[in-house]
Amino acid sequence: MKSKQKATIASHEQLAPGIYSLWVRTEMAVDAHPGQFVGVYPKDGSRLLMRPISICDVNEDRTQLRLVYRAGGNGTREIATYAAGEEVYLLGVLGNGYDLTKMQGKKVILLGGGIGIPPMLNLAKELKKQGTQTVTVLGYADNKLFLKEDFDKESEVLIATMDGSAGTKGTVIDAMNAENVTGDVVCACGPMPMLRAVKKYAEEKGMTAYISLEERMACGVGACLGCVTKTKEKDEHTHVNNTRICVEGPVFEASVVDI
Amino acid sequence: MNTKVTIAGIELKNPVMTASGTFGSGMEYSEMTDLNLLGAIVTKGVADKPWEGNPTPRVAEVYGGMLNAIGLQNPGVDVFMERDLPFLEKYDVPVIVNVCGHTVEEYCNVVEKLNNSKAAMYEINVSCPNVKQGALAFGQDAKVLEETTKAIKAIAKKPVIMKLSPNVTSIKDMALAAEAGGADAVSLINTLIGMKIDIERKCFVLANKTGGFSGPAVKPVAVRMVYDVAHAVKIPVIGMGGIATGEDAIEFLMAGATAISVGTMNFIDPQTTAKVADGIEAYMQRKGVEDIHELIGCV
Ligand SMILES: Cc1cc2nc3c(=O)[nH]c(=O)nc-3n(C[C@H](O)[C@H](O)[C@H](O)COP(=O)(O)OP(=O)(O)OC[C@H]3O[C@@H](n4cnc5c(N)ncnc54)[C@H](O)[C@@H]3O)c2cc1C
Ligand SMILES: Cc1cc2nc3c(=O)[nH]c(=O)nc-3n(C[C@H](O)[C@H](O)[C@H](O)COP(=O)(O)O)c2cc1C
Ligand code: FES
Hints:
The structure holds two protein chains of two kinds. By secondary structure, chain A is an alpha/beta fold.
């Protein structure tokens, strides 16, 4: 069940310049699923809207959620100042998440680009638990390889950096080609150009791709119709070629959306 | 203590309603707040056919509020009557259906279909700033507004609320025109036209360039407009614009509103409507107010 709830910050640290890792104690951890997200409300009343942040990890006894985010704008910069013990309001758990049953017995390639890296961690972990073989390709700007050590525990990991300071120089697709990565299914989260490239790549190789989309959100629960993406077919909710990322997504089979 | 109010013969258990477009069809929020606590539910604008809406980005945050340019994406009245209305009928709450259209005929088509439904009232959106043709045009010219109201009233078998735009020189004149056209009530304000520019990327934040401004920052403008309108017309006024608390709602009631709607703040806290209703009661208790009518238009 979705709700707005008070959560307590268990720990908060900087992983790389501008990238923060936040563990929050919340009941939402009980049924959080890879690919889903929560809304974090800033406290400053001039900033009203929740910031959608993906679930990066869930602790062993499912009492805490980990959120890894980039402090870019005013709201996330405010959130970056919160200390352990402080309270914060969350809206969640939001979105559909990945359907892990469809990946059973397949070889899954996980692709994370930039701030699209965090949600792939929880996915890698859950896939490992159900015995699904994965290989993860992480794309960074430079050699500040945040979360890499966490991924090493869950999956085989390859690195791409735009400046060539670690791994393959270039994008996650460049790294896949350079290392001859193959699989049956691709799951990807990252900037739009990367997702478009992944969609094309999967089409060419005849693979199924699941991509996680981003859009500006107001309600997060399907009420405002702010966060839509174009779809090939008419959508169930409004019967037009637009569907809500916050409810029907953020994870979509790439062939379904027109990006 | 009495919190019941009546609009066009329809009794509301309290004056707290949802603002159209901020509460979906009610379904979206039904697991997060008790719909039975509402005075009425106002649904998202519905047209005679499905509407695609505008390109994204459709929403933006601004100081103390937000901009939206959804463009009235909606599934059309047929799907609405098959799926959304039956869902709402399970609750003990009057349903006010917000209606949009590009032409008078389109408004009338929707109203005609809804005449055979359990909807309690219609709210006619002649004030959406985000749709290229029509919509706002009906709400910015007093003569056109009066004619539109008349045409809809001629076929409507339920009370008609005309929803007014604040983007006019005199909202009072528009309210008088709606009243002259036979409207049973007016609601205001719809959103104010705004704009936000991304100075880093040197572009508009919204794909539509402009969007409707709503949220706590617009409240003083809305209260003033409700006051102006309530003192000009004899029909009931439904007030909205930035309501977040019971105290905010009381301001609107004192300005002359018979009922109020909560819009943007539903996004910030799905329980806002319930908290506003509680806040009104707490105020009445504290001030020894026996009947909410003592507050309406009391300043
Ligand atoms: C489903 C989903 C999952 C996400 N997961 C993560 C994550 O795990 N880690 C992370 O760092 N970021 C994530 N993002 C992006 C994150 O939501 C934005 O970076 C953040 O909202 C920006 O807020 P701000 O206060 O920094 O910027 P401001 O400029 O103050 O934001 C103003 C408004 O615009 C919205 N906004 C600005 N940029 C974006 C954006 N890129 N996407 C959506 N809304 C935006 C804000 O939410 C706010 O409403 C996710 C976005 C979505 C939609
Ligand atoms: C996202 C969004 C969608 C809206 N959609 C509609 C609509 O479909 N029809 C309508 O009459 N008003 C619509 N409105 C206007 C609201 O009903 C309300 O008049 C306005 O937002 C002011 O109230 P608020 O400040 O409490 O949000 C919309 C407002 C928002 C923020
Ligand atoms: S954010 Fe409101 S519908 Fe998705």
